[in-house]
Amino acid sequence: MSTVVKFLILYLVPILSFAGVLGIYVLAYGKSLDSPLISLALFLVVSSFIVSSYVAVILISQFAANGGIYSGLLFSIFGWLFGGVPIFFYLVMFKDIFSP
To answer: Contact, 27 vs 39, CB < 8 A?
Structure first.
């Protein structure tokens, strides 16, 4: 698999996960927190973070082995951090981490 495809996967997985969490939030709005839709959202967020972490580790090891291409390392780490955005929004929407 080429490096470009790996970067596309790294950046598209969190975007699709975020869209899925927003869609599930719209469908589950007003329902109980025991709804299976919320469990589906958790599964979606966790699996997307695992996939983005796996791809980021592959890219980081590839760029580190090629003499330390720092821009590739930076964009790989940034893509991995971008994978944490759906987790944050899941916690805000479904677990109310910032509510008093």
So the answer is: no
